[in-house]
Amino acid sequence: MLLAIHGLGSESGALRDYLEGAVPRGVRVLAPDLRAHGANPLLGEPDDFALEALAAEVADELARVGDGTPVTIVGVSLGAALAALIARSGRFPLDRVALVRPAFTAEPLPPNLAIFPVIGRLLEAHRPQRALAELHRSGAWRGIAHESLAHAHGLEAQLTQPRAAERRIRLLEIPRNAAYRPGELRIPAPSVVLASPRDPVHPLHVAEAWRDELGCRMLVSPARDDGEAAMFAWFRQQLGSFLVGIR
Description:
By secondary structure, this protein is of the alpha/beta class. It has a domain at 2-106 and 178-242: Rossmann fold, CATH 3.40.50. It is built from eleven helices and six strands. It has a six-stranded parallel β-sheet, with helices on both faces. Helix 4 packs across helix 5. The longest helix is centred in the N-terminal third of the chain and has 15 residues, at 51-65.
């Protein structure tokens, strides 16, 4: 079985960009929407958005539908942090783990994630269109746009997607989490880190820290600003190679 976990402010459907054509035929895929994401109606209190709490909810769903065979996990961004927690929980036999564009670090609210609480506060204070205008005026957004216009424009969906204001707690609380303690990030299965250059929210130095902690391979995609289609095609190719032979 393949467990696929999406990123912060995204939804399970976005995983098609990474996995379409990469998953071997016949493999069951569980791709849940996290709390306050996609079709998941749950909101909750700040404690519900601790990484451990989110990972436990996903793990409970996997336990409900799984058949006891080894699990392969693909996690993107926030999903990479949750994938690592689930893989280290000891609840499931593991096949392999792919950590795609990791964003969370050993510190709470690292600089690369600081834009998300900014967006959450704008949604709290303004209607979405006004919030979008205020975002474009902010130094945080301009700093990201200076490095990558593609990633800066990608963040705009955090303000404009359905129920964005209602679900702003996810942007305020989730980035406050540290993903691991230095020296303790060990996954008992073959692992790979897939990263992107010129990505201010998922910077290479964060992916390199994950690689060094895990002692695994890291591969780097084409930059999103040089062509989104080419970037996602690269991810599908690499994941397809990594997932060969899973059941």
